[in-house]
Amino acid sequence: MRFVRETSPDVFTELGLDTVIVIAENGVPVVKHPPQVWQSWPPEDQEAVGIFEVVPFAPPPGKQTIGEPRIERIDGVVSEVYDTVDLPPVATPPKTVAAAFNIKIVDGWIPTIDGMFNIGAAIYLDVGLYMLFFVEAQPDTNYFALITGDAPVKRVGEATVEYFTIEVKDGPDGSGFDPASLSVQVMRIEP
Fold first, then answer.
1. 30, 24 in Cβ contact below 8 A?
2. What is the mean pLDDT of the chain?
3. Overall pTM > 0.90
4. Are 147 and 184 in contact (CB under 8 A)?
5. Pick from 53, 75, 76, 57: which is nearest to 65 by CA?
6. What are the start-end ranges of the E strands in the chain?
7. 120 touches 171 (CB < 8 A)
8. Which of 21-30, 72-81, 181-190 has the weakest average pLDDT?
9. pLDDT tens for residues 152-165?
């Protein structure tokens, strides 16, 4: 919630949510209203003493806000307003899942592969190095892997149309590391 008080026609001052509103008669303060009182008033009672709840700004589709907000009365409604600029067109290439799986690594081997989609086999090559074979070969190497798991560094090593390797290390310049498990989604970028 954001409130303002109209100090003169179409001039608004922001009110803190802890502001006490003083009502005066003939320049003499008559009543002080704590925030929990005036914030609970219906809008017409607030507006009678110049208080307005500001309608937040929502940029139109394809626009981005710039600069600082200002408060204006638009069609009788006190609103937050920003200047806007056109957003550049977004060219996000469509992605397709080419393979997906979860592997568990125990004592130098891969005892289980779960949730397999287009993965035929997994081979433990060395500590932190695994080779995975596609059931259906990829048309090219225009793919990438989203790898999650409890390892600090995970990346695709070698990538071919028939298989790829995953390298796992215990740090950026670290040694090979075997996490308890890895989840992998291989995504293709389609033109």
1. yes
2. 87
3. no
4. yes
5. 57
6. 3-8, 11-15, 21-25, 28-33, 51-53, 63-74, 77-86, 95-106, 109-117, 119-126, 129-134, 143-149, 153-159, 163-169, 181-189
7. no
8. 21-30
9. 788 888 999 999 99
Identity of residue 116 = M
* Closest to 111 in 3D by CA, of 185, 184, 178: 178
pLDDT at 59: 87
pLDDT at residue number 52: 92
Find, among 2, 155, 161, 176, the residue nearest to 105 by Cα: 176
- Tokens encoding 38: 């005036």
Are 101 and 114 contacting, i.e. CB atoms less than 8 angstroms apart? yes
Question: What is the rounded CA–CA span in Å between residue 165 and residue 103?
Answer: 13
Q: Quote the Cα angle for 104-144-151, to 5°.
A: 35
**Alpha carbons within 13 A on the beta-carbon side of 85:** 5
Q: Parse the chain into domains and list their residue ranges.
A: 3-86, 95-189
Residue with tokens 């997994």: 122
Residue 87: pLDDT band by 50, 70, 90 thresholds?
confident
Reported residue count of the chain is 191
For the stretch 89-119, pLDDT in tens is 766 666 788 888 888 888 888 888 888 888 9
In the beta sheet, which residues pair with residue 145? 186
Residue 7 buriedness (CB in 10 A; 0-12 / 13-18 / 19+): exposed
